[in-house]
Amino acid sequence: MKRPISGILAGATLLLTLTLAALPAQGSTAIELVDGAINRVLDTLREDEARAKAEPEYVLEVIEREIIPLVDIDGMARLILARHWRDATDAQRTRFTEAFRDTLLNAYGVRLADYLDRQVNVIARRSREDERMAVVATEIVVGSGQPNITVNYRLRPVEGDWRVFDVEAEGLSFVGNFRNHFNTEINRDGLDALIERLEAGDRSLVEETIDDAASGGDASGG
Q1: How far, in whole angstroms, is CA 82 from its chain's centroid?
Q2: Rounded to two decimals, what is the model's pTM?
Q3: What keywords are annotated for this sequence in UniProt (predicted)?
């Protein structure tokens, strides 16, 4: 039976948050960074599991402190907006980047506490790295006789340190799917309208993107 794409992408979004929360600011290879990251953040949350489940603001506080310096937020925003980024003012770029980050974290970050029993394996033989980009392959162990879910992280060096800028789940690009959906929103209502919805915390923008992928939308965008 085919696994629901919406569930895969939602899980991948959570796993992206999980991995980024644990990546050290400096390290050796991208593979080593990701390999050590997941267990560290799970262990941290498990140490105070009751609080993590009872206080969403605590989880968000931890994520805000740990994630933002370690992900290429600006690069991700540029890739998602694509040609609209070139046409946007500096103020629009800043507002979009901050609003998208906050909406995504509020939609999925608080759910990390529900995934503390999840096992994730880094697959070194399927990973690759050069001076310009790295791809780190992982698998989410589903169990119950179901095949594992493949999730690949794309990293690139930013000011000398590896930063995650995209994640692919079962071949579907996180950035590509948001680019496609947001492009439709912008063409219909304009960039300011999209930003205002994000600034208002409209989680449906995130959820609609996942649903579009589930219905067969591609991730090529532009």
Answers
A1: 17
A2: 0.77
A3: Signal
